[in-house]
Amino acid sequence: MDIREIAKRAKVSTATVSRTINRVPTVDPQLAKRVWKVVEELGYYPNTQARALVSGRTRIFGLIVSDMTNPFFPEIVQSFEDIAVEHGYEILLTSTVHDPKRMEGSVRRMIERRVEGVAILTFGMEESLLEGLRFRKVPLVFIDVGPPLPHVCNIRIDYQRGIRQAVQHLAALRHERIGFIAGPLHLPSAVTRKAAFESSLREIGMPIDPDLILQGDHTMEGGMRAYDELAKKSARPTAIMCSNDMTAIGVIREAYERGVSVPQELSVIGFDDIRLSRFFIPPITTIQMSQVEIARLAFKALVTEVERETPSSKGTEYVLNTDLVLRKSTAMAPQK
Amino acid sequence: MDIREIAKRAKVSTATVSRTINRVPTVDPQLAKRVWKVVEELGYYPNTQARALVSGRTRIFGLIVSDMTNPFFPEIVQSFEDIAVEHGYEILLTSTVHDPKRMEGSVRRMIERRVEGVAILTFGMEESLLEGLRFRKVPLVFIDVGPPLPHVCNIRIDYQRGIRQAVQHLAALRHERIGFIAGPLHLPSAVTRKAAFESSLREIGMPIDPDLILQGDHTMEGGMRAYDELAKKSARPTAIMCSNDMTAIGVIREAYERGVSVPQELSVIGFDDIRLSRFFIPPITTIQMSQVEIARLAFKALVTEVERETPSSKGTEYVLNTDLVLRKSTAMAPQK
DNA sequence: CAATACGCGGAAAACGTTTACCTTCGTGGG
DNA sequence: CCCACGAAGGTAAACGTTTTCCGCGTATTG
Lengths: 336, 336
Known about the structure:
Two copies of one chain form a homodimer. The first copy, chain A, contains 13 helices and twelve strands. Chain A is of the alpha/beta class. In chain A, the strands form two sheets. In chain A, strands 2-1-3-4-5-11 form a six-stranded parallel sheet, with helices on both faces. A six-stranded mixed sheet of chain A has the order 7-6-8-9-10-12, with helices on both faces. The N and C termini of chain A lie far apart (about 80 Å). At the A-B interface, helix 4, helix 5, strand 2, helix 6 and helix 11 of A face helix 4, helix 5, strand 2, helix 6 and helix 11 of B. Chain A binds a DNA duplex through helix 2 and helix 4.
């Protein structure tokens, strides 16, 4: 069942059917009605492949995330999908699971399907792998780590703001030994978060103790290992900030295992504000970075870039705020 | 840059280029080499739309889930994606968020993109919406609720097995008042789980107290509400089984809120074995239903159906086991 | 040595749309 | 009253592949 079948039955040309379906205003309402009737009757759905082939527009955006099973991402994906569907776009989702091999496959598939833009939501990325996309002038949007290149947009995240709030919150609660569990330091965003932590300490005149700064890997297991490490030290921290919520969950989990109660004996702050952090025990004080907002910005960036007729020389820069949200995993530092 | 460009530069016909790329064995190795060289040099990637158009095979499977932000699903999606990619398929992911409107949109988009099969991983579904797919003879695979129709496969889940184990586990721990928080009872799978619970009680001669059987909605909030309800009763249960892990998390969360400690004062058992249940506090005893296995079965069902040359009259039935996995959220019933 | 068979590569049709261009018809102005 | 112009629908080319059908050349067999 194709457009010709419709044309025949409605006694018009395929051109008219096409125009009707695409709501070209010049087609006579009478005719249009006749066409629509046949379309409904036969349950005709246009073939997207054929459409894309001739029009050159696939209406597909690629979405690359690092790990679907990290709850941070599904929330973004969901929002992105919502917006995309609303605008008549489809999404091609791939997850890299931190594997360059898979990453390469992702990119290849995106190119083969002729996506019109790609949002790279993984924090950090083998840049060379994107050559193929850049070469074909596919608009890209990065979260946080976009190199300043044409057709490449960037959503910059103001980590400093939320992290400063968190540090000051802890300081106000009389914490003097604050630990920090960073993300994998080959990720630029992890580096930035760590730097923001250090500069926030400095700002209020607190010493930076390198012994209390560890590297995690943005997973629960990483958080558990890191706390294990910190607990062994002679001078334990009374508060720990984490580079993401999963790490914080791991820390709390390990503390529980060791009989250290949160927040009475240990304050913990996460980062991301995934939904779960509201429901964990105890509910986790964390730094919010709105997933809905990220999705919205990413989509907007791509659409803007796609619809721009005069090719821009530089990608646009977007900014996203972060804010501390207080829950139950922080409290006054224990008395010495 | 298209296949003709390659043909010209390699001084062969487009047919030969096509054959080379598709690894048709009859093409001379010498020629093939020449073609590949040009392909590499120019970074040529075949256009999937054109391919699909002429070959009639899109190599896309649709995946309909109810809610990406329920951690149960991303794990399935991830596995499904892995397998799909491995077999050269792409996946078109949509989530219905329990909204018939969105569901309808999903189906429409699947048909327009000409997916070769659809896995419906939402527990329960407006059957009428699938007419369009069935009409076009698109193979479908359901989890647990597939109607016995041609081209429709079904992954039946043996709830009974895991639930019986769980009930017997609780009985052995001397629990006499066991609560059950069901899923939304308009979902067939929720009904089945509840029925399995009841028949397991009956099997060991325990009374079924309708007062202890509540309806949740497979979310944390639902679990919290349900526990709130149960806690008000004069004769509280000493153990609660939940229709999924998120509900169990809600229950534990609410118990914590009320100062009821799990598992000392209350045993809780979940269902699904999402990754998180291993890391919650306390780690949750739950009934495992392997997400990897679900994904694998679903994919296998679709591929089998697609590749079958003689159209089958009936869809195949697959079976998935469930098993209790013991963690820390269950313990001996408190002394009266 | 001739005739048949077979392997391999090329020409061209086909897939289902969109769209540039053309035709036709009606209308308004000179 | 005739001509020109605009609106609206039709014809056909084009999109980038795969695949069928054919022809050519070489090898094999009688």
